[in-house]
């Protein structure tokens, strides 16, 4: 297979009708490392909205059980990418996601904003640091994919196109990014988690490198001191260099799903999708979206 052969295949597909398959090809074959890093930053970015950051602090999921919360989020979202929306695994994962979200008072606007980050931040990251830029087919497919996920999650007024997703994200951040002490605790815990994946002596360096990849509004919302311009330039150049080196490698022949990432550490003996995540609070059990014909069966992963 030639380096751009899969891209040529994607361009022959329908970005709307084949959105799920195009997104899978992009995330599991073309840019698995980039999607993992971009989606980490996408979720991290949402903490700067105080209503989101405060809720995450109150649940303690991202301060006391940071690795587990990371693993559960990755595995539930990954099941839909790997198996599709109509699969038993996909339906089980979405049901779990809905049960968790339905346990708390989360506004539709916040839910829609989080969805926007999943569309916008990967494109921004890949265009800046990937081995190639995302094609228009991949951009359209990503918007369709997350619009479908939003429908399954019962989110109202989901944007139609990538451009609408991006406009929604920009407007929401301009209106809502702000300092919150509890959100900062969630941010610190997440940075500590990312540093814990590597040898301990590298932790301060990795924290600085991560901050160097954040934009000014995000740094300002968390009251972080920005790394110096030389440090930021070196870090960003290093990540771009990685992308250029990947471009020289043969294309990936087997898919790499997020569940295979070394950062997922908590389920060495396997897991069941229905057992992942937090448990709904008493009195608010159930999924807010009706799943017609969904099976209660859940295969062991």
Q: Structural class per helix/strand content?
A: mainly alpha
Element-by-element helix/strand order: HHHHHHHHHHHHH
Mean pLDDT: 92
Approximate shape = globular
How many strand elements? 0
Helix content: 55-70%
- Quaternary organisation of the protein chains: single chain
Number of domains: 1
N-end to C-end Cα span? 30 Å
Catalogue the unreliable spans.
Answer: 284-301
Compute the number of helices.
Answer: 13
Please give the radius of gyration in angstroms. Answer: 19 Å
Largest sheet: none
> In what range is the share of β-strand residues?
under 5%
Question: Helices and strands in order, then pairings?
Answer:
Blueprint: H1 5-11, H2 19-30, H3 32-46, H4 50-59, H5 66-83, H6 88-101, H7 108-129, H8 136-152, H9 162-176, H10 181-196, H11 203-212, H12 216-222, H13 229-247
Helix pairs in contact: 2-3, 2-8, 3-7, 4-10, 5-6, 7-8, 7-9, 10-11, 11-13
């Amino acid at each position: 297979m030639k380096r751009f052969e899969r891209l040529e295949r994607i361009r022959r597909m329908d970005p709307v009708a084949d959105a799920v398959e195009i997104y899978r090809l992009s995330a599991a074959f073309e840019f698995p490392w980039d999607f993992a890093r971009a989606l980490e930053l996408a979720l991290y970015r949402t903490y700067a909205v105080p209503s989101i950051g405060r809720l995450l602090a109150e649940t303690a999921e991202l301060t006391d059980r940071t690795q587990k919360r990371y693993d559960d989020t990755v595995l539930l979202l990954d099941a839909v990418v790997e198996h599709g929306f109509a699969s038993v695994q996909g339906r089980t994962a979405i049901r779990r996601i809905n049960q968790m979200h339905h346990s708390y008072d989360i506004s539709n606007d916040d839910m829609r904003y989080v969805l926007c980050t999943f569309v916008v931040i990967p494109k921004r990251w890949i265009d800046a640091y990937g081995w190639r830029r995302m094609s228009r087919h991949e951009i359209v497919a990503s918007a369709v994919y997350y619009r479908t996920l939003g429908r399954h999650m019962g989110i109202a007024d989901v944007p139609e196109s990538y451009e609408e997703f991006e406009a929604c994200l920009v407007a929401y951040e301009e209106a809502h990014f702000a300092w919150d002490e509890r959100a900062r605790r969630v941010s610190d815990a997440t940075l500590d988690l990312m540093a814990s994946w590597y040898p301990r002596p590298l932790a301060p360096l990795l924290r600085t490198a991560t901050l160097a990849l954040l934009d000014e509004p995000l740094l300002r919302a968390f009251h972080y001191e920005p790394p110096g311009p030389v440090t930021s330039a070196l870090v960003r150049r290093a990540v771009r260099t990685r992308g250029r080196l990947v471009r020289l490698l043969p294309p990936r022949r087997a898919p790499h799903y997020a569940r295979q990432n070394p950062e997922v550490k908590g389920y060495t003996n396997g897991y069941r999708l229905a057992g992942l995540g937090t448990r709904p609070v008493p009195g608010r059990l159930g999924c807010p979206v009706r799943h017609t014909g969904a099976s209660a069966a859940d295969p062991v992963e």
